[in-house]
Amino acid sequence: MNHSNSQTAYLAGGCFWGMEELVRGIPGVLETEVGYSGGDTPDARYEQVKTGKTGHAESLKIVFDPQQLSYRHLLFEFFRMHNPTTRNRQGNDIGTQYRSAIFYLDAAQQHTAHQVIQSVDASQDWSAPVVTEVVPFKEFFRAEEYHQKYLVKNPHGYTCHYVRRFDLGEKTPG
To answer: What are the domain boundaries of the chain?
Structure first.
């Protein structure tokens, strides 16, 4: 789908099923895809990624309208829907493939990611420091079709994600 003037973000916050379902509901999100980012295995597939040996994280590609949703606000929403203080874990999902990561596309996204993490840490809404990786985007391998919009296809499927009613310091300028 072609969305002129749209922007793209790549985020990882545990199992991509729950992340995708929550992100799809954010006003300004135009499109989502689940896949694998951050590793070294070319054309990674789920059977490889689930072993934790590829270096990839279950990730989300988010296409959004910056007129309706800023990258900064998207990141605050990201930090409300997963626990960014647990290294390589979300709920019962454990392993590097479930790590929290922001894969930035340019210096502006990198800068914004660091600013938002500072605000989140300063808010003390989470009881421990943020351990989210902020790393350059390399590649995104689209996950198999059965993973796309999984919780739409399987409404009673597993998810450990939910939106917390945290402020996270979002009202602070930056």
So the answer is: 7-153
pLDDT value of residue 158: 85
Total residues found in the chain within this entry = 174
- Among residues 15, 113, 116, 117, the one annotated as catalytic is 15
CATH 3.30.1060.10 assigned to 7-153: yes
Confidence of residue 1 (pLDDT cuts 50, 70, 90): low
AA identity, residue 165: R
Q: Residue 62, exposed/middle/buried by CB under 10 A (0-12, 13-18, 19+)? A: buried
15 included as an active-site residue: yes
Model-level pTM?
A: 0.95
